Structure formats: structure tokens, C-alpha cells
Amino acid sequence: MTTGWKGPRYWRNRPLEERLNNLRIPRRFESMTLESYDKSIGDQDVYYAIMTWLKNAEENIANGTGLYLFGGTGVGKTHLAIGLLKEVVSKVQISGYYIPTTTYMEMMYDNLPTIITSLYNPKKLSLRYGERFVSILQSACRLVPVSGTDQRNAGK
After folding, report:
1. pLDDT tens digit string along 73-99?
2. Average pLDDT, integer, range 2-25
3. Distance between CA 41 and CA 63 in Å, rounded?
4. How far apart are CA 21 and CA 92, in angstroms?
5. Chain CA centroid to CA 139, Å
6. If we measure between CA atoms, which residue out of 70, 50, 43, 45 comes closest to residue 149?
7. So where are the chain's domains?
8. Cα–Cα distance measured from residue 151 to residue 9, given in angstroms and rounded to the nearest whole number
């Protein structure tokens, strides 16, 4: 399967607007940023982990170190992942993609840093995809549990 992926050399001198447009973020998520994440109701520890990863983004990218955010429905995993993706693309001259799990599984051996969100903790993930997948994931990503209440249905 071809993803249309272009390496860092291509993106190094591309305008920020082009890099952001390349992210393929679904329309309903386009407004999500790290600034728009409500830290007062979200998970403070997760936000700190995201900001720490971002502070060391160039080193994490060079090492192929990603993040695996897991937790319940509506707790902010996708919001944080998209916000982080936008920040990384803005600060480091690279690009990225918003991709489904199946595409990631095909690309995981390329040592590309990846930000992943899931409802599955590592144990459930192992039951669904196998221990081998989880082992590879744990070697490639920092696992970050996200807790909180469903924000999509808050106030309804």
C-alpha cells in the first residue's frame, strides 16, 4: 500500500501551510489544538507528558520515539494527539499524517515516531492484535494512560 509519504528531506523547505494541509486531519477535528485543550477538566499528567515529549520533539523524532495515548471514550486523546501533531509540524520542519491503525501497522517497522490514540490499554491491545504488536509498540512509544470523564457528552 502506498501512503504518499515523503521523507524529511522533502519537507525541510516546504511552507508551514503546506505541511499543515498535508496532515489529513478529518474536518471535525481541525479546530483541535493544544491551546484549546481544557486542562482544568482534562488529565494534567497527560498534558505534562505531551508537553515534555514536545519539548524534546527533535530528539524523539530522531530516535523514532512516539506516544501511545490510551483511555476511555471522550477523555481527550484525539484532541491531544492532533494538537501535538500540529505543534510538531509547526516547530520542526517535517510533516505527518492522521492515519488509521491498519496503515500504522504497515508502517511500524520504519522507525517513524508515531502518536497513537486508543481505547485499549496494553493488555486489551495484546488480546486484539497479539503480544508481538504490543512489544513492538512498547519499544517505539511511551505509553500514556489518559483518564477523565467523557467531554463529548459534558453538559448535555
Report:
1. 888 898 999 999 889 888 876 656 566
2. 69
3. 32
4. 15
5. 16
6. 43
7. 10-28+36-146
8. 39
Q: Based on the number of CB atoms within 10 Å of its own CB, is 12 exposed (0-12), middle (13-18) or buried (19 or more)? A: exposed
Nearest to 112 by CA among 128, 136, 131: 136
Average pLDDT, the chain: 81
Rounded to 5 degrees, φ, ψ at 136 are -65, -45
Residue 84 grid cell: 501535538
| Amino acid, single-letter form, for residue 90 | S
Set of cell numbers at residue 73: 471514550
Q: Distance between CA 153 and CA 156 in Å, rounded?
A: 6
Which of these CATH numbers, 3.40.50.720, 3.40.50.300, 3.20.20.30, 3.30.499.10, describes 10-28+36-146? Answer: 3.40.50.300
